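Changelog-adjacent note: as of this version, every example in the card shows the full chain rather than a window. The one below runs 378 residues end to end.
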Amino acid sequence: MMKAVDFAVAPFLLIWETTQACDLACSHCRASAQPLRHPDELTTAEGERLLEQTVAMGTPVFILSGGDPVKRPDLYTLIRKGKGLGLRMGTIPAATTMLTEDLVAQLKDTGLDQMAVSLDFPRAELHDSFRGVPGAFSRTMQAIDWAHKYALPLQINTTLCGRSAPYLGEMADLVERLGIVFWEVFFLVPVGRGEDLGGLTADQCEELFAILYRVQKTSNFVVKITEGPHYRRYVAEREAENAQRGAMHAAGATLPKLLQRSEGPGHTVGLATRGVNAGNGFAFVSHTGEVFPSGFLPICAGNVRTQDVADIYRNSELFRTLRDPDALLGRCGRCEYRGICGGSRSRAYALTGSYLATDPWCGYEPVQNAEGRHARVR
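Full-length structure tokens:
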């Protein structure tokens, strides 16, 4: 089992956007990726130094993302370097012609812990339209078969927005048949091309949570919700109701066991042992070395070319504020679940201009009762 990480000292997970180059034109793309690599991307040596600094600060999981990380010719070198340092390594190749059986076999040979592929819709025509390239669905399904052939643990990434939400039940049925170890469901933050996609209402989120909770309770793979931290409140409520223990309040709230799996099946990447949020258990490094609390919260706190990533994470005012639940404003600030949720800081910033504001996609209404404790308005 992975040891617990003190989020004041290190993130559980660091993602490095190795490149913004990608041959897809995905509707939701944060980076608005383009085919060619940027000339000022971090070099191999700079990437290896970032890996070393990540290990030194105590972070266990490192993801090489993009764009399409396969566009970097040093991808295998970076994975081997990370594995040699003791990191759990993952990567997310795009469903292009570069995603071949030989690529999957070589990723396995490097010791990669987990490969992720994106699957947003359960039907080819819908997924291909969303990803902007015909054949993306069939390439993804082929890559799933290759991952199984080479015994490479597989993760599915799914984006939820106004367009894809109606298909989540059908999507869950498909995912449950794919033999995966990890399903990451991303609640859209409207940045980049994603600004043009339909958002969700708070009530829709609750309906989607019900589907995801059912999958999490009945499946043998890990379900992780990204940029939907109020799912943790939803799970806490359902678990409390099931145990007939009443509401969990701030003084004694703990993360339900359902959300505490630090490893996935077969000792794959798994979840943190507490809730991860932007700047609080999570950090993102851009292709040019800028450090952000999240790829979807575009406020730069420093650059790894001039600072140690640990110093940025531990000491920058931005990151320190994001780790303080008492700094939150509005409903998030007075919510009894703020310690295990905290709302999407990225979505709050994208939709309100303040990264401390209430997450607009959460409709939970905490109020003070006569005993000075919070209670929900129903």
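Structural remarks: The CA atoms of residues 36 and 58 lie 34 Å apart.
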